[in-house]
């Protein structure tokens, strides 16, 4: 049994990772300001310290509940479109959060750090699936902020000996298969919950942005990884930090188009997804799929829910049981 600090542990991927840690018998302290996360998403058994990662008093209060085996850092602003409207806020807050928490970890003698990074570091990639050798050229302020976070952690390694793992992924999806946690964003921007909400009558009809891409059905192709599998990947990266720092791209290896997602939601839910079509969004590539070959080979990680239908089924169960999200619990 070990003790871990999970920043952003009241959020979507963070809360599922807290569940994974608790399920294997670890102790968890969550640092979250609840601006995007939910108090009800913090599982029983975890300790919540409410506060921002760039608030020295909150960070100090969290580390006072250590010592910690490692920090798993999820707290961040994460909307690509929003980052292009307010780039300085994204770069400032995301980098400040990482540097504050990593600095406190080094001071406390915690030398392992797992960063929830993003495959948006690669912008418009040269080839699909995206592997770790491709050039880093973010096309958004969000992607740039995560690249700067990775660079800051590289300096923490050089100066303080802090080993880090940066996991670069795109679209977390699905919900805890036991129904203990799910996806609840405000505003919601992710395709699968928007499609499910439209099918359930909880949201307006969906707008598909563009149907003339150079893809088999004309709609964008994206990578979807089950949130429970993402949580497991973060845990799998921890033992590697005994030896070295790592950067892993993380995807299913198979992309699904918007139309495929809508068809799958309709099939799983037994009802159509009301939707229409609009123009392309500026900056949307035709296809984005990340490789996870290095992660699989070096850690033995294998997704339990690689099929889109399985991902959607767990998401549907969560949203059907929680039509108001965590507010209804």
Automatic annotation (TrEMBL):
Residues 5-251 form the NAD-dependent epimerase/dehydratase domain. Its EC number is 5.1.3.2. Keywords: Carbohydrate metabolism, Isomerase, NAD. Its cofactor is NAD(+). One of its GO terms (molecular function) is UDP-glucose 4-epimerase activity. CDD domains: UDP_G4E_1_SDR_e (cd05247). Pathway: Carbohydrate metabolism; galactose metabolism. It comes from the Bacteria. Gene3D superfamilies: NAD(P)-binding Rossmann-like Domain, UDP-galactose 4-epimerase, domain 1. GO terms for biological process: galactose catabolic process via UDP-galactose, Leloir pathway. It catalyses: UDP-alpha-D-glucose = UDP-alpha-D-galactose. It is an enzyme of class 5 (isomerase). Pfam families: Epimerase (PF01370). The keyword NAD applies. Belongs to the NAD(P)-dependent epimerase/dehydratase family. Homodimer. This is UDP-glucose 4-epimerase. It comes from Falsiroseomonas bella. The gene is galE.
């Amino acid at each position: 049994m070990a003790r871990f600090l999970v920043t952003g542990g009241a959020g979507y991927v963070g809360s599922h990772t807290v569940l994974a840690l608790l399920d294997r018998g670890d102790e968890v302290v969550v640092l979250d300001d609840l601006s995007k996360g939910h108090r009800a998403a913090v599982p029983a058994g975890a300790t919540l310290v409410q506060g921002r990662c760039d608030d020295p008093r909150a960070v100090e209060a969290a580390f006072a509940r250590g010592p910690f085996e490692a920090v798993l850092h999820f707290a961040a602003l994460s909307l690509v479109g929003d980052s292009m409207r307010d780039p300085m806020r994204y770069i400032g807050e995301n980098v400040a959060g990482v540097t504050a928490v990593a600095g406190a970890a080094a001071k406390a003698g915690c030398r392992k750090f797992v960063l929830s990074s993003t495959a948006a570091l690669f912008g418009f990639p040269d080839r699909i699936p995206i592997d770790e050798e491709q050039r880093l050229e973010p096309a958004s302020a969000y992607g740039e902020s995560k690249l700067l976070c990775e660079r800051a952690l590289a300096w923490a390694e050089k100066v303080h000996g802090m080993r880090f793992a940066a996991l670069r992924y795109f679209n977390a999806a699905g919900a805890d298969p036991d129904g203990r946690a799910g996806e609840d964003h405000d505003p919601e921007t992710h395709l699968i919950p928007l499609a499910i909400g439209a099918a359930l009558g909880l949201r307006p009809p969906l707008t598909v942005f563009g149907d003339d891409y150079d893809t088999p059905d004309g709609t964008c192709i994206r990578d979807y990884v089950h949130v429970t599998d993402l949580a497991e990947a973060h845990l799998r990266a921890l033992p590697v930090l005994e030896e070295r720092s790592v950067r892993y791209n993380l995807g299913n290896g198979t992309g699904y188009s918007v139309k495929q997602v809508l068809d799958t939601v309709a099939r799983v839910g037994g009802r159509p997804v009301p939707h229409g079509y609009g123009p392309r969004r500026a900056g949307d590539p035709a296809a984005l799929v990340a490789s996870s070959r290095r992660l699989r080979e070096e850690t033995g990680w294998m997704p339990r829910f690689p099929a889109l239908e399985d991902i959607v089924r767990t998401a549907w169960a969560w949203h059907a049981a929680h039509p108001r999200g965590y507010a209804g619990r």
